[in-house]
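hey so i finally got around to running both of the ones u sent me last week. sorry it took forever, my laptop kept dying halfway thru and i had to restart like 3 times lol. anyway pasting them below in the order u listed, first the sequence line then the structure token line for each. didnt double check formatting much so if smth looks off just lmk and ill redo it

first one:
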Amino acid sequence: MKGASKGDFNHPDENIEFEKISIQKVNLNGISMVKVTIQPGWNWKDHMSDIAGTEWCENRPIGIVISGKYHAKHNDGTEFDILPGQAYVVEPGHNLWVVGDEPVVAYEFIQP
């Protein structure tokens, strides 16, 4: 493993596309970071549940919103908006969706 590593979202290691969502992924010394751009109208349950095969998202996103507005709802009843400049951790068992007419741009860490 190198002592330092950097990635470039303009030239990512991987591009991932789903309906209303694009993800650029860079790999850094065993962890990954993603830039997520999500279009208005996107809702995890509506757009990803069938692909994932689960009712609730079972990932654990850790990130920061750069622009746009997210809403998170956890299956324990916890609910909150995530605004630009706010960092977040949403535990497995949640739904996320875009609020309003502006795309959400967020950066997230992907843990191994």
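and the second one:
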Amino acid sequence: MSTNNEDIQKMLSIGKRYDLDRKSDVNINETHTPFEGFLHARPSDNGVLLLFYNPFSVEEKFYEFSIDSIAKIDDLGKVTNENGETANKIRVWVKKGMPAIISESFVIK
């Protein structure tokens, strides 16, 4: 799974944005919670962002957030696995009190 800066900017442009960067009196840590991972857009719903814990793993764990609940996305740089595959790591700031979903797949043995 590979995501570039254009994908991140596209996700930011969808839905309403909170203008936190221009308001110096707003403390984002008081109003939002950060989550780190790897961006993946949900193909069937442009209003949802999937944030994968590890983009290179078969056993996937991910968070699902509404785009409208995200105030800010920070680019944390690229991560490369042993096979040379790369993915952009990001941090999303989600407004406290908003509903979200966490999902974890597993293999039945």
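quick thing i noticed on the 2nd:
Residues 5-104 form one domain.
anyway thats it, ttyl
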